[in-house]
Write a structure and sequence with these properties.
Elements: H1 9-12, H2 21-24, E1 30-31, H3 32-35, E2 48-53, H4 64-71, H5 80-98, E3 106-113, E4 117-123, E5 128-129, H6 133-142, H7 150-153, H8 168-175, E6 178-183, E7 189-196
Antiparallel strand pairs: 1-5, 2-3, 3-4, 4-7, 6-7
Helix pairs in contact: 4-5, 5-8
Length: 198
């Protein structure tokens, strides 16, 4: 869309169009610690933490069973099986997009259960976000349409077609009752996903 295609003020500020005035503001990678005011994730003693390092010989699928086991601790919600998909997608995003598959960086998975909820927080050590990521989150939270791939939302974004279809974050929001974003002590992103008892 270029300026001659703007039919209304809604088009001018559209989140869907990469050429809208709103989206044009986001062209540089976002440094989580310096460019955002995300709250700091500070887990207390009620969380159980597991730190995972993925070696070059491994991939995220090697941890799918371990993540499913963690999610079983949320069985009291009645939503844990579907939720394990969200946790896996956050884990894969942390490895691929956050840590950029750097084997010297770790992923930490915190989880805790309450009487009515189950929470999982996946934290990377990446330090940056892609420029269109916040707009994509805002767009999918509105859920104005069906599945929308990040790569469709942000055309021109480099992708490895062998690894994903760009719908991981969409699935995280679809299968969680609540999704919140934080920065963490390692300078990376923490994604907190919560399911609630039915």
């Amino acid at each position: 869309m270029n300026t001659t295609d703007w039919a209304s003020i809604d088009d001018l500020f559209s989140l869907k169009s990469p050429d809208s005035l709103t989206r044009r503001q986001f062209r540089e990678p976002i440094r989580i610690q310096k460019d955002t005011q995300l709250p700091l994730f500070q887990p207390d003693g009620s969380y159980v933490a597991e730190t995972i390092t993925i070696t070059p010989e491994q991939n995220t699928l090697d941890y799918n069973g371990k993540l499913a086991e963690i999610c079983k601790r949320g069985a009291h919600t009645g939503k844990h099986e579907r939720f394990s998909n969200a946790v896996y997608e956050a884990f894969r995003n942390a490895h691929q997009h956050g840590n950029k598959k750097d084997p010297s960086k770790t992923i930490t998975v915190h989880h805790r259960s309450t009487e009515t909820t189950f929470e999982v927080v996946v934290s990377d050590q990446g330090g940056t976000l892609r420029p269109d990521f916040p707009a994509y989150i805002a767009f999918i939270r509105q859920r104005p349409c069906g599945i929308l791939s990040y790569y469709t939302f942000a055309p021109g974004t480099p992708r490895d077609t062998n690894e994903n279809a760009g719908i991981g974050t969409f699935n995280i929001h679809l299968t969680s009752d609540r999704v919140e974003y934080y920065r963490n002590e390692h300078g990376g992103l923490s994604v907190k996903m919560t399911i609630e008892k039915s």
